[in-house]
Amino acid sequence: MPDRFDLPAGFRWGAATAAYQIEGAVEEDGRGRSVWDTFCARPGAVRDGHTGAVACDHYHRYPEDIALMKDLGLDGYRFSIAWPRVLPTGAGAVNPAGLAFYDRLVDALLEAGIAPLPTLFHWDLPQALEDDGGWLNRDTAYRFAEYASVMADRLGDRIPTWITLNEPFVHTVFGYAMGIHAPGRALMFEALPAAHHQLLGHGLAASLLRERGLEVMLSNNLTPVEPASDSAGDVAAAEAYDALHNRLFTDPVLLGRYPDLSALGVPDDIYGAVRPGDTDLIHAPGLDGLGVNYYNPTRVAAPTDPGLPFDLVDIPDVPRTAFGWPVVPDGLRRLLAGLRESYGKALPPITITENGCSTPDAPDDQARITYLATHLDALAAAVTAGVDVRGYYTWSLLDNFEWAEGYHQRFGLVYVDFATQKRTPKASYAWYRDLIAAHRAY
Ligand code: FCB
After folding, report:
1. Looking at residue 5, what is its pLDDT?
2. Which residues are catalytic?
3. How high is the mean pLDDT in each 10-residue block of the chain (442 residues)?
4. How distant is the alpha carbon of residue 162 from its chain centre?
5. Which atom of ligand 1 is nearest to the CA of 409?
6. Who's near 159: CB < 8 A, 6+ residues apart?
7. Inter-axis angle of helices 427-441 and 58-72, nearest 10
8. Is the dihedral of CA 125, 127, 129, 135 positive or negative?
9. What secondary structure does DSSP assign to 366-398, as a single string?
């Protein structure tokens, strides 16, 4: 039996998407504006001026998309809820038509025998909240918790497990530190209060969800960090980068404290954002599962630019995805083993909530099959070594709006012709369907 099937019985197979990347219908049924609508309108922000205004038109075509999921045999579907569809200005009056869309979606998933796994925040902050400072404003954490309660009250009867945030690292660094994603702020390390406020929002929301008997997960983009050499400078730079990318987002949740950020020149209270008691609010509610999004490792060397405490360098001699990202399947095994080693008993069960690659513009995507198969091998090796991994959600079900890259990167099991909205299952779709069926039959 191939390694890739060597995963426990009951292991859950899924696929993931996000609201702004697939829904479209940005002006329909009372949806408010999000930071991504604003960012896409900024000249030069997104490649070729692409926007998510139509995307995969999933808002209207979700029945067809659920039929594709059913045919795949998915156990679960990870999607995100667009906060501005439900609360158009981020707070206050609820938009009944927005809530009704997620009701229909969830009912149709359950009808198809697929467990809905929602993410409450996948980067599309209501613009009205951004106008008040977005995640740099502590109040946003409280608004997030209110929004989480609205959703739990409406859908908690049908959805037992919720993901609060998607990849606060990427949102903070790309959105607030470097300005290459919405909201397009370039504050460098002074962006880090946005990280703290997201984590605080997670903690406040987690406590409300768990009070209602719901399970809570948090999905992070995690990367195994490797120093470019054994030199003291490279090793120190790798440690500083690991603290920023991984531990900043995982230590407070699992251990109740922030890592030492002094190598980054960041004060302990993260520029005054961390108030007494905050780390308890983040840690105390507990976490039922850690969502791991894995794409590639990161190689780090001592800085050449005095402005930064590290240099990110290329990983030599490895294949690349269409996006140019290095393909290192064993990085997933190392990442999982490292989490177990670092957190021990504090580590809850893991679900891989994203993993996948972009491939050239064609439905025959052999490169995706190789990518998925080799990563599942690495995952199975980690499980065999004792890491508790409960499920795997590939990114992504459909080709979709890939943020600053627009429609240029295709991550789907299903090819989408964006001119006609025709869906064509790719070679990897049939492969994944067969894998799920074989695992289930075993
Ligand atoms: C992740 C995002 C997801 C998608 C993939 C390719 O960082 O969470 O929305 O863009 O990358």
Report:
1. 67
2. 167, 354
3. 69 98 98 98 98 98 99 98 98 97 98 98 98 98 98 98 98 98 98 99 98 98 98 98 98 98 97 98 98 98 90 97 98 98 98 98 98 97 97 98 98 98 98 95 83
4. 13
5. 6
6. 106, 116, 117, 118, 214
7. 50
8. positive
9. HHHHHHHHHHHHHHHHHHHTT--EEEEEEE-SB
For the chain, domain boundaries: 12-441
Residue from 24, 23, 118 nearest 80 by CA: 118
Exposure of 62 by Cβ count < 10 A (0-12 exposed, 13-18 middle, 19+ buried)? buried
- The number of C-alpha atoms within 13 Å of 17 and in the hemisphere containing its C-beta is 30
In this structure, how many other beta carbons lie within 10 angstroms of the beta carbon of residue 128? 18
Which pLDDT score, from 0 to 100, does residue 441 have? 87
Q: What share of the chain is helix, strand, coil (3-state, %, to 5)?
A: 45, 15, 40
**Ligand 1: residue whose CA is nearest its atom 10:** 402
For position 1, what pLDDT does the model report? 36
- Looking at ligand 1, which residue's alpha carbon is closest to its atom 2? 167
Q: Is the CB of 403 under 6 A from ligand 1?
A: yes
- The DSSP code sequence of 155-199 is HTTT--EEEEEE-HHHIIIIIIIS-SSTT----GGGGHHHHHHHH
What's the confidence (pLDDT) of residue 305?
Answer: 81
- For a pocket test of ligand 1, which of 78, 120, 167 has the largest count of ligand atoms closer than 8 A to its C-beta? 167
| pLDDT recorded at residue 170 | 98
For ligand 1, atom 4, the nearest C-alpha belongs to: 402
Query: Does ligand 1 lie within 6 Å of residue 170's CB atom?
Result: yes
Cβ of residue 355 lying under 6 Å from some atom of ligand 1: no
Confidence (pTM): 0.98
- How remote is the CA of residue 410 from the centroid of ligand 1, in Å? 11
Q: Tell me, what's the pLDDT at 3?
A: 43
Question: Does ligand 1 come within 6 angstroms of the Cβ of 395?
Answer: yes
What are the structure tokens assigned to 403, written together?
């943020």
Q: In the prediction, which pLDDT does 390 show?
A: 98
In CATH, which of 3.30.930.10, 3.40.50.12780, 3.20.20.370, 3.20.20.80 is domain 12-441? 3.20.20.80
CA 361 to chain CA centroid, Å, is 23
